Every structure is written in C-alpha cells, then in structure tokens.
From TrEMBL:
It comes from Sheuella amnicola. This is DUF3460 family protein.
C-alpha cells in the first residue's frame, strides 16, 4: 500500500489542531460574531439605492 504525500503545511495544521483542540470551536465563534449575521433586506435595498455611480477612472475630470 502506497503512503500518501502530506505537505508540511498540512502536517503543521494537523499538529496544531491536535495540540489546540478548541481552535475550530473558536473559529466558529469568531465567524458567528463577525460574519454570520441576519441581513436586513430593507436596509440593504436602501444602501443599493443610495449608491453614487463612480467614473471608471477616479481622477478623470468631467
């Protein structure tokens, strides 16, 4: 049976997770705190309507 190649970074991550078993839980908590938020459709629509069109080249004088 052939042994599969495991890169150094994969080995590092596996060792890190083995030595820090709570890391995935903390990652999920951090993601929930920063990213997994309920979206307000009305507010998002207001942002979309308030958007100001920008010229393709910012420094172009019109």
């Amino acid at each position: 049976m052939a042994k599969h190649y495991i890169s150094e970074i994969t080995q590092f991550l596996q060792d890190y997770k083995k030595n820090h078993p709570d890391v995935e839980k903390r990652q999920r908590e951090g993601r929930a705190r920063l990213w997994d938020k309920a979206q307000d459709a009305e507010l998002a629509d207001g942002f979309k309507q308030a958007r100001v069109r920008q010229n393709p080249y910012v420094y172009q004088n019109n």
